[in-house]
Amino acid sequence: MVLKLLRAMGYGDSVPNAGKRTGKPGDSGVDGVIREDALGLSLLFIQAKRYTVGSVGRPEIQAFVGALQGTDKGVFFSTSSFTKEAVEYAAKVSGKKIILIDGRRLAELMYEHGVGVSEAKKSSFIIKTVDFGFFDEEAGGIGDE
Questions:
Q1: Res. 12: pLDDT tops 80
Q2: How far apart are the first and last CA of the chain?
Q3: What is the tally of structural domains in the chain?
Q4: Fewer CB in a 10 Å sphere around the end CB: N or C, the chain?
């Protein structure tokens, strides 16, 4: 899902099949990579955590930073929130640009870029509703690009 969102936001636009899912749930590694150029000289690493309880802490961010081999930037998504220590650590990592996207911001970005929502045009305005089929893993809605 986050690969689809980043592609909708314009990351890897100039590269066919730029987004690649690399991890599996619970593997603690990098979950995806987006090649931002045709030669793969600029890579964006992605980590996504689906938490129903609790927040992402500094140890998870440190592990992600440690996995950033071959790139200097990454985006860490969480359906929940980040602890103060995680936010502070991500902000001060030397030589790396780490963006943290919490559940609230994730929902805002999905809405803004039309990922996981359906649009219905009514006269002069657009109504967006949640597209529940998009989130059905068994039906293949969230799978690879």
A1: no
A2: 9
A3: 1
A4: C
